[in-house]
Sequence to fold (254 residues):
Amino acid sequence: MSILKSLQERHQSGKKSIAVLVDPDKIDEPGRLSTLINLASENCIDYFFVGGSLITTTNLAQVVKQIKDNVSIPVILFPGSSLQIDANADAILFLSLISGRNPDLLIGQHVVAAPILKNNKLEVIPTGYVLINSGKTTSVAYISNTIPIPDDKYSLAACTAMAGEMLGLRLIYLDAGSGAEREINSKMITAVRKAVDVPLVVGGGINTSQKALNALEAGADLIVIGNALEKDPKLLIEISDKVYDWNQSIEAKK
Ligand code: 1GP
Fold:
């Protein structure tokens, strides 16, 4: 089954998923990725996202390979640019930065990436990428040269997601940016959730299991955890327990 199809089915049934984000730039010690891979596998993590706003190292391919060689968890590229494509991953979020007005990130990079993607077997997942303000300027806001949507402009975010869905995008990714000071608030997640039928990915600044649970309750289908695991990889155990309990309760209601 395709990754998108499985996310759609999980969305329909109310089940939740977790992705661990690996930024190749932050894999500075050889053992760090192995620790994450082992933890992800022991805790039944659904996906690895691999990417970053600015990859200054050349180890994207190495990171993808190390994950693929060790576990069967699907690897989804979360690219900061059209340079971040690796055919050994399973899928790529084909991101259109719809909260911004930077044409290069709405269609430009896509034109460059399209012929490369056409010639490999990566599953291409058209994704409406929506940045929400989270306090301090994040790398993604700076690099993308766009202004994130203010975190109290719920209808602006909802209409942005709605337009993305009408344009044919198959996922909406609400992101506060990696290491965000403030995670995306529940009211914002719920407003966007109500506006669209496609699966909703939420990430940025989720650094406690309570924040993860809040995002799930507000309507996130897939939560993405990156930065917080750099400081405390074991947080993944707590967060995956929350997702597991949630999914068990859905099963029990059947
Ligand atoms: C960033 O949504 C991801 O694009 C994850 O954010 O690194 O803050 O968990 P964190």
User: Anything to note?
Assistant: The beta strands are 17-22, 47-50, 75-77, 91-97, 123-131, 171-175, 200-203, 222-225. The chain has a mean pLDDT of 95. The CA atoms of residues 96 and 106 lie 5 Å apart.
